[in-house]
Amino acid sequence: MLEPLFKYINDHQNQFVQRLKEWVAIKSDSGDHTKWGQVETMLNMTAELIQKMGGKVELADSGTHQLPSGETVSLPPVILGEFTKDPEKATLCIYGHVDVQPAMMEDGWTTDPFNLTEIRGNLYGRGATDNKGPVLAWLHAVESYQATNTEIPVNIKLIIEGLEEVGSYGLLKLVKEKKDSFFADVDFIVISDNVWATTSPALTYGTRGSSYFFVEVSGPKLDMHSGVYGGSIHEPMSDLIALLGSLLDHTGKIQVPGLSDDVTPLTEEEKKLYENIKFDLEEMKNAVGVKQFLQDTKEDVLMARWRYPSLSIHGIQGAFSEPGSKTIIPRKVTGKFSVRQVPNMDPQDVERKVKEHLEQVFSTQNSPNRLKVTATVSAKPWLANLGDSQYIAGQKAVKDVFGVEPELIREGSTIPIAQNLQEETGKSVMMLPIGAHDDGEHSQNEKISRYNYIAGTKLFAAYFYELSLIK
Amino acid sequence: MLEPLFKYINDHQNQFVQRLKEWVAIKSDSGDHTKWGQVETMLNMTAELIQKMGGKVELADSGTHQLPSGETVSLPPVILGEFTKDPEKATLCIYGHVDVQPAMMEDGWTTDPFNLTEIRGNLYGRGATDNKGPVLAWLHAVESYQATNTEIPVNIKLIIEGLEEVGSYGLLKLVKEKKDSFFADVDFIVISDNVWATTSPALTYGTRGSSYFFVEVSGPKLDMHSGVYGGSIHEPMSDLIALLGSLLDHTGKIQVPGLSDDVTPLTEEEKKLYENIKFDLEEMKNAVGVKQFLQDTKEDVLMARWRYPSLSIHGIQGAFSEPGSKTIIPRKVTGKFSVRQVPNMDPQDVERKVKEHLEQVFSTQNSPNRLKVTATVSAKPWLANLGDSQYIAGQKAVKDVFGVEPELIREGSTIPIAQNLQEETGKSVMMLPIGAHDDGEHSQNEKISRYNYIAGTKLFAAYFYELSLIK
């Protein structure tokens, strides 16, 4: 049954790579709302491809969003797609996104991030693995059925957005609105927007949540000259450094009081899952390029990444950030950090505790400056039931293509839509990654290997088949 | 004697403003070495004007400079200018610079920083007061003598550079080379590259020194995704925040051990100088837009700015600094701060103590990351002798133009050339500012008032005259 599909996919891999090259060339970076025109271009290109394949497409209005500046902006639409409907078959809804993280040569890319470049079997480019490659692999899996005149054994629906990298503004509201229409006949929801944990294929059953914090300290009317005023001014930058410095100790432990109180205790059963994962700590150190992690054992590192909260400081806006030297006292600086939450932490509660902590620290500074803390993108952590039937189908499909059992893993990063879709629709949600652990999502030199891209397309084709056998 | 000069200057003020507009239009920002072409354009324009006025110009080679990156770059030339020489007259050498600080509308300018714009008597534009306006005022003072057929009573030499804002690379070496040629017959050196301390005209007899520090912390090979790796990695950014946080306490006191040991003790005589200055603390709070300074009295604020050291944190390179949100763990971040030194601190000693302190703090972090501390632009503090004859001439010239005695002030910011010229040439150096205290050098909306620009031109014309009477 699967052989002709796999052969078609093998035979057409160069076309599939060429199409990914065309998609990567669109700079659909959603990080800056003034550039959302490119995101819309990418969404339109995706919608056209689905329509060309015979799918129906609705470009659903996802409303507006208020930026931290107070400005309200219209959001790019969300693609709701559907291939021919057979009421006898199970219905699978595939989620994906076609926006990307920012990327510039100056950040240290070896090749142009928006020109997909193949080097020794790897396809380098922004979005190659996160998430343009996987979205195309789904569409190419459908194409393999169509081109070989094989009936697709499940009904396929698609929900594809363009704002995942900034927190899927508007998507949750849309899902709520479409619960009783688009989602009414959906049986399973599948997401391929993460990577394997090791060199082995994996199914993902949980993700951490995330809250992004903006800590603004403002003081003088204007930027000041540090020679003229240095030593006489409460500098917003030193206030901010003290605030950011109060968040973590040098072991990576979060210093916000009570933040980790609600973390689910570890059971013996869960502990075993980590022991079974073929994660090589030394190999990972080499891949990442660090001499040591904050933890010493494989299990502790995996748990720190997947089932415990973390806090990372990303940067400062408003201070001097260019190369060279500038003797400035910035008038207003905004520190940016995020907290990854885990079951059973509540984003509202996290936000309150972080704000209270920062306000308390700031009060000890005796500063005449103004503090403003805001938080966005509060995504809850997600945890699925490993007994759901699509997890069984997923395991079989992995075996069909790779000949091994998948690892059952969690993901440290946030796919808010997994939690949102599960909570709002009540359907089973699974994550079925095809990227490798060293793909470098969000990094310089992001890639997907040609092998994973093509094997992933086969995996998705096999998954349609295995899912139809179970329902 | 001075009346025809003053009348000429008054009558030609619109031309003088127009010429400043042409100079401000050249984006001679020296902060980024890849843009030094504009600095050279500005130097050529200056040289042409001097030549048109009958001056001789040498575009002196100032050698090369090694950037923090290790790259070696050729430096723009330095203008050595000279008007007709009469061995019977005293020779005055004027120092100025025609490069500027960076400026962008996005930083919060009300008008285009490179289009000089007059609003209610103020001329807004980058370089208006620092230092294009004063350099032109010197040349226009010469022009007023020439145009009124008045013999200039002193010989005029000029040294004009294009790298002051990044630390006058190459200038010290050039001054050493020219000590026995260009500087041999110079009697006095005058610099107008600072501003009054209050609303009263001033002579400046001291400046603070400066050392600029780059604190680089590097870890992983690439930027990492904070979802995937957050909680397991020693993040370079949290190491850096801890390092920067160790530099100051919340009262602005420098926490580097021993840094202030060599500060000259305050004498009763010096204390009186501060009491005499008509500095209004409340007015300054309003101008700067702060509710309080770190000190409570006028004298303490002035001393904090002029005769005590300070440390300001300017920013971080390599972290996320754009608007919006990005969930990145930066692989390499460079914190930037500077220390203003005062007599009798030694820059070499400051550098050593800061490095030792940072290394000590970093060692307590137990981090596998790499720390690299480099320092540039080590300028020594400068203090002149108030009894020098050009200070007497300066006081008389201020009285000629403004009808009041000047305040005798120091300057918190660094003009390394004052110290360098005094030390290398052994000549008397004076600073004769024409900008007002609220001109906003290095800030958004930098300006010089039309009044100060024109009165400053008269002051310089009067100074030539008074100086000739004393010698």
Fold and architecture overview:
Chain A is an alpha+beta fold. The first copy, chain A, folds into 2 domains: 295 residues, Aminopeptidase (3-Layer(aba) Sandwich), CATH 3.40.630.10; 129 residues, Alpha-Beta Plaits, CATH 3.30.70. Chain A has 14 helices and 20 strands. In chain A, the strands form 6 sheets. A 6-stranded mixed beta sheet of chain A has the order 1-4-8-5-9-19, with helices on both faces. Chain A has a 4-stranded antiparallel beta sheet with strand order 13-15-11-16. In chain A, a hairpin with a 5-residue loop joins strand 2 and strand 3. In chain A, helix 5 packs parallel to helix 13 and helix 12 packs across helix 14. The longest helix of chain A is centred in the last third of the chain and has 21 residues. The first copy, chain A, starts with a helix and ends with a helix. Chains A and B meet through strand 12, helix 6, helix 7, helix 10 and strand 13 of A and strand 12, helix 6, helix 7, helix 10 and strand 13 of B.
CATH class category label of the largest domain in chain A: Alpha Beta
- Helix content, binned percent of chain A: 25-40%
Beta-strand content estimate of chain A: 15-25%
Largest interface: A-B, 97 and 99 residues
Q: What oligomeric arrangement do these chains adopt? A: homodimer
Number of helices of chain A: 14
Average pLDDT value of chain A? 94
